[in-house]
Amino acid sequence: MHRDVSELKAIQEHADIVEIISSYIPLESKGKNYFGVCPFHEDHSPSMSVSRSKGIYKCFSCGATGNVFKFVSDYENISFYEAVQKVANKIGMPFKGNVEIAKTPKKYQKEYEIMELSSLFFQNNLMTEEGSQAFSYLKDRGMDETVIEDFQIGLSLDKNSLHSFLNSKKYDISLLQSLGLVNQNEFSVYDTFVHRVMFPIHNLNGEVVGFTGRIYLPDSSPPKYMNSKETIIFKKGEILFNYHRARENIRMAKKLLIVEGNMDAIRMYSCGLKNVVALMGTSLTDFQIKEIKKLRVPVVLILDNDDAGLLATYQVGQLLFKEQIIVQVVRISGEKDPDDYILKHGIAAMENNVKNAISFLEFKLSYLKRNKNLQDSEELALYIKNILQEMAEESDDILKEVTLKKLSDDYGLSMEVLKQELLKFESSRESITLPSKEVVLEGKEKSNKYDFIASHILYFMMNDPVYIKMYKSKLGFLETSLYRGIANEIMAYYELHKTINLADFLTVAELSPLKNEIFQVVESIMDENMDETIMDEYIFSIKQIRRKNEIAKLKEKMRMELDPNKKLEYACRIQSLKKEV
How many domains does the chain have? Predict the structure, then answer.
């Protein structure tokens, strides 16, 4: 894969990584490197090392690693090219974005193209005479032309309008079916969405991947809302509705507002609370939590005012809290959701609610009281223990003290007793041995010795040509296709540039289809001690694993073999391999 990244390399070479990173976080010189508190996890002591000579940073606690572009991209939660532009501006160099990349078309390019065309088709429908009733419905719901345009709201018409349009563009019926846009029976093909106001759903990069359709005609039959089915490009667990619009606003507001429904997000965003996203359901996936954590801002949960919303607030809050994300809660009263609340009470009332959001711990104090008879000694004792157990995970000492004082005053309990009990829970929590960081690449259920060694070999190769030469002459290949692909990327870079260092290679890695896997390898290496003796040991270990795997395969073949001569042949080969091992 050929890439002309000379413009990127020029900017990177002129950018002093120490100066750039120190414009975001304080750095202190210690020996040949600089150290600071890592902004990518809850860090209390300087664990991030920044090397001016190597042009990279590395956190020896969470593993965050990269060059100057990667740091700016992750810190500001912006795209790679936006980060390059930021760095170029900081050092006064022009960046025209002239990066020539000869590579295969984007994965699922046709699927994204169809979804974008469908969205444009729906938007156009809303502006026609047939769309006048739907347009009036939206206006009555307080959505003006600006909101309709910002959120690309559209309209689905009769049973065959979208299908006819896409069919005229020569798209295959089976592909349209797989994307959930049309259905087919033995008689005809017909649109999935009919006579509904259409709200496009975008992925985190702002590409249309699905739709929510809402009925608007008074005589329409339920369901009120209909969502696209999950497809190859639409996974609900990988979506935060409105994220692509809200991202920059979240960074500026230094706060993320999370609501339950798309309409809640649209209402809040259009009224000025632009740092808002909506869940695609009432739970959070690991993927969504990871994206939220990258933002490094407090989260305010403003979920629906019903029992399901209350439970979701507790469950979602717990998930975020366990990831050391600061969580606050707003429980609206009088209306069922933020959309209705703003329509009735106005945006100023909602802004005031956000301003006075309570801590998640305070919310839990109230939540855990539900359905308990605190006049009963046993139920009161259980409630107090539940609260102390929750407080053991809280890092804010002042909040702990205030909460203990409240428990003491409310229930006539000794502060000393409460503190002793809290200390027991804290000690129990701290005694749990945390697992060491292991290499776990996407697509792998569990790391093992081979993963560990292969990752180190690849990491060595990214840092110095000498290890590439050792790999080629002494090992030749890695069995796993993913590792083999990364090794090929490294060798291709070396063949093109005749040298390699980690900072430059990571710039090119940003343009690679294996980008995520390459960065996972880099971030998994905690020990940067590198020399040829260690590389030789890794190569030797890989060969040993190969031999043992081959022995296991031969034993299985021998077990299944009926021919005595073949069995003997396998046995001799096994003995030979055992001697090598």
Answer: 5
